[in-house]
Specification:
Elements: E1 5-9, H1 16-27, E2 30-33, H2 34-47, H3 55-62, E3 67-70, E4 78-81, E5 84-85, H4 87-91, H5 93-103, H6 106-117, E6 125-129, H7 132-136, E7 142-147, H8 150-163, H9 170-186, E8 199-202, H10 208-221
Parallel strand pairs: 1-6, 1-7, 2-6, 7-8
Antiparallel strand pairs: 3-4, 4-5
This protein binds cytidine-5'-monophosphate (C5P).
């Protein structure tokens, strides 16, 4: 039998990371933070002086990147790219915007596809992103799609940035989040949409514990 996968998709700042880290820790499964791969590739392109609109050149960089996530399932893991820990640059809000620019390109998505599938190793994988359930792991055993209002997501992102020692203005975050969502939703390849067999969870009025409880209930139902 193939290695089981649970996918957690949804827009930025909705809490996919928290949910998938929690599940991975409890089940003892691997975790794929697919957004980090797009972020890392965007940073590598900027570093190499490549214009982000030159998507073939960006895609060509992907194969040469040695990417390693270390640490446990906590968010304090390091992100090593070609031997350097670039976690704080990867997590920066502006990097999310760069990532979503390159993520609209079919060549870029194709270049990262196999790398994402390679995270599927026993005993199981929790994959979070935008197209985990639709494109990368269409045969996942359980597909979750989280939503929340843009205002609530901006508020959560602000708390997350502050916890990481960064700061931002709430209204700016809300605009950035809405712009990024719009780009992710309307792109022609792998747009941000729930898989037809995904279970939608609106988290706007739920705290992390309540979301975790609901998710745990769904995981148990699937045996
Ligand atoms: O989830 P995160 O905010 O780290 O993702 C950054 C950007 O990478 C997203 O806005 C999206 O454009 C892109 N992405 C994607 N497909 C994924 C994960 C992320 O297109 N599976």
């Amino acid at each position: 039998a193939s290695v089981p996968v649970i996918t957690v998709d949804g827009p930025s700042g909705v809490g996919k990371g928290t949910v998938s880290r929690g599940l991975a820790a409890r089940l003892g499964w691997q975790r794929l933070d697919s957004g980090a791969l797009y972020r890392i590739l965007a940073l590598a392109a900027v570093d190499a002086g490549i214009t982000l609109s030159d998507t073939d050149a960006v895609a060509a960089l992907a194969g040469g990147l040695d990417i390693r996530f270390t640490g446990d399932h906590e968010d304090n893991e390091a992100i090593w790219v070609n031997g350097r820990d670039i976690k704080s640059a990867v997590r920066a809000e502006a990097t999310g915007g760069l990532a979503s620019q390159i993520a609209a390109a079919p060549a870029v998505r194709a270049a990262l596809l196999q790398r994402q599938k390679d995270f599927r190793v026993a005993p199981g994988l929790i994959g979070d992103g935008r197209d985990m359930g639709t494109v990368v792991f269409p045969d996942a055993a359980l597909k979750l799609f989280l939503t929340a209002s843009a205002e609530e997501r901006a508020r959560r992102r602000l708390l997350q940035l502050r916890a990481a020692g960064q700061d931002a203005i709430l209204a700016d975050l809300c605009t950035e989040i809405s712009t990024r969502d719009e780009r992710d939703r309307t792109r022609t390849v792998a747009p941000l949409v729930p898989a037809s067999d995904a279970i939608l969870i609106d988290t706007t009025h739920l705290n992390p514990t309540q979301v975790a409880e609901r998710v745990e209930g769904l995981v148990k139902d699937r045996g």
